[in-house]
Amino acid sequence: MSTVQPPAGIRLPEGNWWDWDVVAWDPGQLRLAAGHDLSYSHGLELVFDDPLFVSCPSSFYDPTFRAPSTDELRRVSRQLGEEPPVVVAFEADAGGQENISCLIAAERLEIVRETVLRYWREDAAPGLRFAPRVRPPGR
């Protein structure tokens, strides 16, 4: 199940989205994965198409999403030459003494809620997706 969210803010589906990490990142897409324990699977992805600006750690905990401030919007717009369609801001625990401010700008944001396995399983149910880093044995 996926939904496209408005750029002004994020409304996550109900769930325990404590643990977060970057599961895939290339010039066309940034995928943030979330769950209550990322050891075995994750149940939520924020998929940023055509990421234009990214300022966040590769893993973090318990983010608090908020609308970007005027200064943040101005900073990103100045760096990109125009205001991007999607700007997401949040505060998160990255393991330090204080939370950090994070900012992501992209052309589009999609929220995908489904179980994604993070390790290879021969007995995985048909239709279950594996995280991009997971490779079957021998491949």
Can you put this structure into words, describing what you see?
The chain has 139 residues and is mainly β. The chain has one domain. The chain is 8% helix and 50% strand. It has 1 helix and 8 strands. It has one helix at 70-80; strands spanning 2-4, 19-26, 29-35, 41-55, 59-66, 86-93, 100-117, 129-130. The protein has a 6-stranded antiparallel barrel with strand order 2-3-4-7-6-5. Strand 2 (19-26) and strand 3 form a beta hairpin. The protein is globular, with a radius of gyration of 16 Å. The chain starts with a strand and ends in a 9-residue tail after the last strand. The relative contact order is 0.24. The model is unreliable at 1-7 (pLDDT under 50).
Biggest sheet descriptor: 6 strands, antiparallel, barrel
Structural class: mainly beta
Give helix and strand order, one letter per element, not per position.
Answer: EEEEEHEEE
Shape: globular
Uncertain spans: 1-7
**Count of alpha and pi helical runs:** 1
Write the layout of secondary structure elements.
Elements lengths: L1 E3 L14 E8 L2 E7 L5 E15 L3 E8 L3 H11 L5 E8 L6 E18 L11 E2 L9
Parallel strand pairs: 7-8
Antiparallel strand pairs: 1-7, 2-3, 2-5, 3-4, 4-7, 5-6, 6-7
